Please model this.
Amino acid sequence: MTDTAPRRRGRPSRTQSADAPAARDRILAAAREEFSERGYDKTSVRGIAKTAGVDSALVHHYFGTKEQVFEAAVEVAFSPASLKVRDVVLEGPLDEVGERMTRLIFGLWENPVTRTPLLAIVRSAVNNETAAAVFRRLVAAQLMRRIAGRLDVPDAELRTELAAAQLVGVAMMRYVIKIEPVASADPEQIIARIAPVVQRHLTGP
Amino acid sequence: MTDTAPRRRGRPSRTQSADAPAARDRILAAAREEFSERGYDKTSVRGIAKTAGVDSALVHHYFGTKEQVFEAAVEVAFSPASLKVRDVVLEGPLDEVGERMTRLIFGLWENPVTRTPLLAIVRSAVNNETAAAVFRRLVAAQLMRRIAGRLDVPDAELRTELAAAQLVGVAMMRYVIKIEPVASADPEQIIARIAPVVQRHLTGP
Model:
């Protein structure tokens, strides 16, 4: 604190684009915002640059193509969550993994900060093959296969995906399409019904 | 056969737009195709008219706005399926409803003819509030509430939606985002895992 705060305050003002790490973070935040609101197809590098207050060339300089901006924006949001999901699944008793996983995923969707990148992934992946490929890489390879590796059951990967499908489906109906009564139901009421199903998929008969 | 075939062959050629019922059906088929491939936002009345081989004015004449074309296109495809789903749920023993419902929904998704309008609904509803409203009206009001009405359990509507969420989630991962192994798994293997979960949601503890 004493080291960085005075330095920042005393720093001479610079052009935005010269402040590389800040501009990079701003571009990523703008990209998440644009992709989550508009979906992949309707988001442009120019629009992201405008929201971030930088030149389009800087977006290309840091990230390359629109696909690469998307992957970076999603990965930054997704990787910590992904690690956390893995930890939650790998730590603690296996016969409570359904409840732990369900609570964690609901926590991410209920929190507006993490909901935005999740909406960006879902909206984009549904309508665009490039974004779907990013989703497959991040979710399937990074997350589900590792969870499956922990399960000592036949068809562990398929089971993990069917558990994820239950969670994805609830998220679609509650947060994206907003069908009642699931959209306004108490999260605890939903978790009480979903957790045993996730548990059954992962470790049941 | 002997009645219609010669009549058709002998019919004088007419302009496409003058053949009202045929033009109307062509517009609906074109609308389903366009909405399923492009989603709601990127589909235009002009594009639908072009695919159907008619003038845009005729599309507006029959259906009104883009939203109304969407609703008509989806409803034509959805209503027979919706009635069938209801019948399947309402007929037969309640302790096998999970398997009946899962098989029926998988049948609709596995059949390319019915898959197209389903993709149109999902792709559009995820990205557009107008399309989401149509989805809510058709799926929630027409279908889920009636199934729920048959169930003699507390929270019947929420249960029905969570069962639907499992089916929607699997469809998303298998047919839309195409994550392996669920995308290529034998349907029977998936049904064997999903049907008990749907049953549990609808009639379980």
Remarks:
- Confidence is low (pLDDT under 50) at residues 1-17 of chain B.
- The interface with chain A takes residues 39, 41-42, 122-123, 125-127, 132, 135-136, 139-140, 144, 155, 157-159, 161-162, 164-170, 172-173, 176-182, 185, 189-190, 193-194, 196-197, 200-201 of chain B (CB under 8 Å).
- The two ends of chain B are 54 Å apart (CA to CA).
